[in-house]
Amino acid sequence: MEALSPQTLFTGQQIIWLPECASTNAEAQALILKNSATDGCTVITDKQTAGRGQRGNGWEAAPGENLTLSVIWKPSFLAATEQFQLSQAVALGVLDWVQTLLGPDAALRVKWPNDIFYGSQKLGGILIENTLSGAKIQYTIVGIGLNVNQREFGAPTATSLAGLTGRSYALPPQAARLLECLERRYLQLRAGRVSQLRYDYLQALYRYQERHPYEVGGQQVTGQIVGIDETGRLAVEINGQLRSFGLQEIRYIH
Ligand SMILES: O=C(O)CCCC[C@@H]1SC[C@@H]2NC(=O)N[C@@H]21
């Protein structure tokens, strides 16, 4: 795979900052449909009225307090079967950025497939939506919601950077830093450094090699995450048996 020089970073990438929209992922999708999406083009908003989350859930965030954005990439070098490599790169890019604010020893983890956790509290979520062209990925929309300055949450399982540090953060410079961190990991992926990304992802994986309760097929089981396969399925050892799960097939029990 080609090696990329730093000049290939998306410097000067198009950033569209909207006061309000339904969903930045939906806005990104509209740009793609109009053929106006450049590689690295980013939509950011202060307020989403119909934010989308994983598993068909919604995504809510206090207006003007958090980072809510979608980056469009054109990863035509990836086969459709390699979509999980994007998940890994994106989660690590977000983690790299959070680490610049909380320090390298902060208890940051990626909860499979790509929730950003501090301890057992969620700091942010990622929703990646891909458009395929035959067996290749044509466009990817990387939707990221990060709790930055919001202090109040409906559940104790969520937190924010401000909640953790007691500081508040100006959003535009943080958005720029986050995009840089994402680009760095994306370039790593483009340069074919897949094993490094995989290694870093497993190092950061929440509850990796620990025994915890999960819900599988409506039953509570105790299992130990032992790995992730090439397609991103979670490998869990349950009662001495190795089993593999997709996103809809297993739930974490807190
Ligand atoms: O944890 C999740 O369920 C994923 C949440 C992803 C939310 C982000 S906010 C920006 C982008 N636009 C959306 O509609 N969703 C993603």
Automatic annotation (TrEMBL):
Keywords attached to this entry: Biotin, Ligase
EC class: ligase
EC nos: 6.3.4.15
Gene3D superfamilies: Bira Bifunctional Protein, Domain 2
UniProt xrefs under SUPFAM superfamilies: Class II aaRS and biotin synthetases (SSF55681)
InterPro entries referenced in this protein's UniProt entry, alphabetically: aa-tRNA-synth_II/BPL/LPL, Biotin_CoA_COase_ligase, BPL_C, BPL_LPL_catalytic
GO MF assignments: ligase activity
One Pfam family it belongs to: BPL_LplA_LipB
Chain ranges passing through the membrane: none
Reactions performed catalytically: biotin + L-lysyl-[protein] + ATP = N(6)-biotinyl-L-lysyl-[protein] + AMP + diphosphate + H(+)
Residue intervals of the BPL/LPL catalytic domain: 3-190
PANTHER family: BIOTIN PROTEIN LIGASE (PTHR12835), BIOTIN--PROTEIN LIGASE (PTHR12835:SF5)
Entry protein name: biotin--[biotin carboxyl-carrier protein] ligase
Organism lineage: Bacteria, Pseudomonadati, Bacteroidota, Cytophagia, Cytophagales
